[in-house]
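FORM 12-B: Structure-to-Sequence Request
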């Protein structure tokens, strides 16, 4: 069953064409990677899937909703069903880790404070942080802890779908591998479908089930990593050189 279906999507910024006729299908339970050279439009596609960016042609269907024909209420309901961990979506520096995680629960639910506190404590534990970390502010925690806190925030509303934009970028190799393990654990534990943009080859091989490679405005490959070695693209050959 497709959780996300992208059909003939074209994206333009002014006269500049970024995507031309993109087609891809993400199945329930996949950990699906969007790869490609810098500037090919991976983040833009992710932003289109979560309604933060408009495309100029084609259609995107997410969890059964056609994003071209969606009411305000349906869009709100859809936003509750996914979690997002974007590079730019940093934690609010004036709020503690726990307050950051509680934000979505306060905005989208009418749960009382005691219930919200309990859910926040559960999510802190789920991502492998200590309860005492919840009282700290973003400036007081490491890069790896910030990613975990942002992940706990993304998971606050028990999403079915998780969008991650270069989740291991900026992390040292140990923290990056730790984050990969966490993603795999959460995928199994929560039955999530995960869409991830990544440049991290180790992370790509350790976590992804399926990939789409965008290059020169098009999807030049969609499939498993096993078949990647048969592809003739210059980007694929250079990028995967170490593993071919
Ligand atoms: N809001 C915008 N207005 C104009 N151009 C934009 C906008 N957002 C992105 N772009 C351009 O679209 C292209 C694709 O950007 P995008 O961030 O999606 O690439 P990417 O593949 O994620 O890159 P990277 O791997 O470096 O993060 C870039 O050339 C970027 O400058």
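FORM 12-B RESPONSE
SEQUENCE OUT:
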């Amino acid at each position: 069953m497709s959780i996300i279906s992208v059909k003939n999507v074209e994206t333009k910024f002014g006269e500049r064409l970024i995507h031309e006729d993109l087609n891809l299908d993400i199945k329930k339970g996949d950990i699906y990677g969007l790869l490609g050279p810098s500037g090919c439009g991976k983040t833009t596609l992710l932003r289109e899937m979560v309604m933060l960016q408009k495309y100029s042609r084609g259609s995107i269907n997410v969890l059964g909703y056609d994003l071209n024909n969606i009411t305000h209420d349906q869009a709100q309901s859809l936003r509750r069903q996914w979690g997002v961990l974007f590079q730019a979506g940093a934690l609010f520096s004036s709020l503690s880790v726990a307050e950051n995680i509680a934000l979505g629960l306060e905005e989208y639910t009418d749960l009382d404070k005691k219930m919200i506190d309990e859910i926040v404590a559960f999510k802190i534990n789920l991502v492998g942080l200590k309860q005492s970390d919840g009282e700290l502010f973003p400036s007081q925690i490491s890069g790896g802890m910030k990613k975990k806190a942002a992940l706990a925030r993304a998971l606050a509303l028990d999403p079915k779908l998780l969008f991650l934009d270069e989740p291991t970028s900026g992390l040292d190799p140990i923290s990056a591998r730790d984050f990969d393990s966490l993603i795999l654990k959460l995928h199994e534990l929560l039955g999530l479908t995960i869409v991830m943009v990544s440049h991290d080859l180790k992370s790509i091989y350790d976590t992804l089930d399926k990939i789409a490679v965008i290059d020169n405005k098009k999807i030049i490959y969609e499939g498993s990593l096993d078949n990647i070695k048969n592809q003739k693209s210059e980007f694929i050959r250079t990028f995967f050189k170490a593993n071919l």
